[in-house]
Amino acid sequence: MSAPQSYLKWLDRVTYDLDTAKAMLQAGRLIYVIFMCQQSLEKRFKALLAFQGKEIIPIHNLRRLAELSVVIHDLDYDALIKLDFLSSYYINARYKEDLQHLSRGITETAAQDFIHFTEGLVRWLCQKMK
Questions:
Q1: What is the dihedral of CA 25, 29, 30, 33, to 10 degrees?
Q2: Could you tell me the pTM of the whole model?
Q3: Residue 67: other Cβ atoms inside 10 A
Q4: For 81-117, how does the pLDDT look when each residue is reduced to its tens digit (9 = 90+)?
Q5: Alpha helices in 69-127 (DSSP H)
Q6: Residues contacting 79, CB < 8 A, separation 6+
Q7: What is the DSSP secondary-structure string of 40-67?
Q8: Contact of 47 with 11, CB cutoff 8 Å
Q9: Phi first, then psi: what are they for 126, rounded to 5°?
Q10: At 23, is the pLDDT very low, low, confident or very high (cuts 50, 70, 90)?
């Protein structure tokens, strides 16, 4: 794969991770719905960075990735709050918190809302690559 086409490897995983989030919703594994939404958006931002010819640095913070890809000023306050939540949740799910603590406040409705948010942001970021 040529360097300018490296963004394609990131895009392949975006759909896979979002489909996994939906499968986790069906299975009632709500923690992993949120986790996979973060993963999907992280890879979507990294695809945009690769498309822009920028270096992909090993970070998981979605707000920082939005800054690096120069789209942060186009995002509203609610989107930024959700990106911050997803970033924090990802780190806690991966490294720190126990399942009971992570499950608090994550309802099926909240999980569905994060899937819809992720789908919408993925579509919006797609437009940035035209």
A1: -60
A2: 0.91
A3: 13
A4: 999 999 998 877 776 667 777 777 799 999 999 999 9
A5: 77-91, 99-103, 108-127
A6: 117, 121
A7: HHHHHHHHHHHHTT----S---HHHHHH
A8: yes
A9: -60, -40
A10: very high
Q: State the Cα–Cα distance between residues 130 and 127, nearest whole angstrom.
A: 6
At 119, list the tokens: 């789908």
Q: Where are the domains of the chain?
A: 3-127
Containing 1, the helix (H) or strand (E) segment is: none
By residue count, the chain amounts to 130
Closest CA to 18 of 91, 124, 121, 96: 121
Extract the tokens encoding 113. Answer: 């809302």
pLDDT in tens, 48-83: 999 999 999 999 999 999 999 999 999 999 999 999
Among 127, 123, 107, 129, CA closest to 18: 123
CATH 2.60.120.20 applies to domain 3-127: no
Q: Which residue has the tokens 């759909």?
A: 15
